[in-house]
Model the fold of this input.
Amino acid sequence: MVSLVPSITEALASVDPAGLVGATDWCTHPADLESYGVARVRGTKNPDLAAIRALRPDVVVVNREENRELDVRRLRDSGVRVEVTDIETVPQGVAELERVLDLLGWPRPAWLAEARRLWCGDLPPVTRRVVVPIWRDPWMVVGPRTFTADLCRRLGWEVVVPEGADPEQRYPTVTAEAIDTAAVDAVLLPDEPYVFTADDGPEAFTRTPVELVSGRLLTWYGPSLVEAAAGVGR
Done:
């Protein structure tokens, strides 16, 4: 089996790492994938299709947002079975992981049941409003209908799209000034996909408190969900 989705790679490796034969360069968890003979097949947006075919996987698992439809089509046209996941909320993430595991005939791990218990109940009251940038030059923020926005909402945080940005876009482009004047309680700066640090990001905001958070805990839908329920800070 080949996984082109970092979150799903980590989830599947927690059950049977030897069942994976290929993963992307961005699949950083667990750190010891190579020790199980997992081959790297480049990135999520530019996978090495020839290398994937050469691995002769039973199935390739992809995600509608993270991977390209063109690559899915080319793999399928060459006879490779591709399973597409579609995840915009935490409950969808849990359900899709359950579906993929069932499809593979693999057991559901205990952490997945715990993630369902922690995340798939009623929404809590909103306790604060946040903006979540994911890139700079240009600045881009998390919009609605995204896994991250839903995760934040389930922590009691409402994700705000700054004025001037298109609220229909999943990751709209904005200015730093628009973020800083969005009248929110905090700007959350994750360390992926853009690596925001104490020296790269916070200096752009003078009006709004800034918090450095874990990109993995904020954006991944694997075993990290259990840890994320206790907080996403770093």
In short: The domain at 2-86 is CATH 3.40.50.1980 (Rossmann fold). The chain is about 30% helix and 15% strand.
